[in-house]
Amino acid sequence: MSKPRVAVVFGGRNSEHAVSLMGAGSVLEAIDKSKYEVIPIGIAQDGRWVLGASDQRFAIEQGELPAVDTSGAALALPSGQGTLVAYDPGSIPVELGSVDVVFPVMHGPFAEDGTIQGLLEMAGVRYVGSGVLASAVGMDKAYMKTVMAAAGLPVGRYVVVRDRDWRLERERVLKEAEALGWPVFVKPARAGSSQGISKANDRAALEEAVEFARRHDPKVLIEAAIPGREIECAVLESLGDEPPGASMPGEVKVEGGQEFFDFEAKYYPDQMSLTVPADLPAEVAEELRAMAVRAFEALECEGLARVDFFYTPEGELVLNEINTMPGFTSLSVAPQLWAASGLSYPALVDRLVQLALHRSAGLR
């Protein structure tokens, strides 16, 4: 019998392009080649799909971020066929065969936000991770908080700043933000990997922070600071009819001198530490795990997610956000949480592929 064909897709048209490559490099190294036929596919920053080059660089080297090598054959995924087609100018298109599962190790807009999931749905191809709705809502932090609050989960106070608001009603926006109290955190509503995030301690810094966030997204979120420890929990869908499972919680600490968990703290060496299990009272740890599963189910996630919380000095848990395709290198938080909970990185990759293989394409 032929082995299932798994296309590992990476890159994309956004500022998290390099982060995607780092995760894909780990997946390509860990996936069982004796069990699956693996096809690496890169999406260049201009949107082109290409067959992965044999010498594609996936890691940060000498401070330089990786990018998709576009020297490979150009690819297309015709709608409704699930078959990869290679084509080059002046040549006859060549079918590369059908794909059983796509593993989109991708983050941010035009990737993790339901867009590639919608493309794969139209092509009739199964894929790892959440569907269109969960991906889109999880990516948009404003709507994510609305859904979480409706599900009875505690979220912090925030102000949503849309493009029109900032251009035409800036004074109102600034007053609403000031009512949150100082400091505030300002972030793009639809970006990840801590891209475009700033901390503001006064009105002048707030205006600068909003302008900085708007470089990534015209829709911006201003959040009240929540004192406390940052605790994260990974959630994984069951292969059967059992409910999703939650990992042991882990505490993230910034070690590189940054004020908060920014891009460098996440992806450069020796900038953060993760303690698993987090030093929490047993009842708090269990409550946090249960809340993580509730968040996963409230969004109707599939496959995997990472749910981030603050644990305040008063002993309260506040949900910060959910990531439907969290950072996925072998050293990223979610894989480390699962490794500490007894599921190794190669086993996690295999579980996710098997989950995708066992679910139907289309409406579920």
UniProtKB/TrEMBL annotation:
Q: How is the cofactor bound?
A: Binds 2 magnesium or manganese ions per subunit.
Q: Which SUPFAM superfamilies match?
A: Glutathione synthetase ATP-binding domain-like, PreATP-grasp domain
UniProt source species: Nonomuraea muscovyensis
Q: What is this protein called?
A: D-alanine--D-alanine ligase
Query: HAMAP family per the record?
Result: Dala_Dala_lig
What keywords would UniProt list here? ATP-binding, Cell shape, Cell wall biogenesis/degradation, Cytoplasm, Ligase, Magnesium, Manganese, Metal-binding, Nucleotide-binding, Peptidoglycan synthesis
> In UniProt terms, what function does this protein have?
Cell wall formation.
Provide the GO biological process annotations.
Answer: cell wall organization; peptidoglycan biosynthetic process; regulation of cell shape
Do you know which Pfam families this protein is assigned to?
A: Dala_Dala_lig_C, Dala_Dala_lig_N
Record has Cytoplasm as a keyword: yes
